[in-house]
Design brief:
Blueprint: H1 3-12, H2 14-33, E1 39-42, E2 46-50, H3 59-77, E3 85-89, E4 99-101, E5 107-109
Parallel strand pairs: 2-3, 3-5
Antiparallel strand pairs: 1-2, 4-5
Length: about 110
């Protein structure tokens, strides 16, 4: 099948409809991102981002725990982070899971 036939086939098939539909929803998904209210708390070594205002009472404890753990790791392992560690704090009513990523970024998901 030469390239001209392929173009005609794709334009006449359902592929064109799906592609146009996809292009229609791109602006809608981008505008939906503006409605997300992220709250942020920063220290010299930490950037904590959280979604729900109801979990804001946990922010001071989370920051203290992180700073204490970082201080210990700096002394024990002689570890110096290259930049701020980002923590995305999201309460999923204990149905979620947490994890951490160390390479190539300092990132923790709680």
């Amino acid at each position: 099948m030469n390239s001209m036939r392929l173009v005609k086939y794709l334009c006449s098939s359902g592929f064109a409809f799906i592609f146009r539909l996809f292009l229609l929803f791109i602006p809608l998904s981008l505008s939906a991102q503006d409605n997300i209210n992220l709250k942020k708390f920063e220290t010299p070594t930490l950037k904590l981002v959280f979604l729900d205002q109801n979990t804001s009472y946990l922010v001071p404890h989370t920051v203290r725990s992180f700073e204490n753990a970082l201080r210990f790791q700096e002394k024990f392992w002689n570890y110096k982070p290259s930049d701020k560690t980002s923590i995305l704090f999201n309460d999923l009513n204990d149905n979620g899971s947490g994890g951490s990523l160390v390479l190539p970024w300092n990132f923790m998901l709680i």
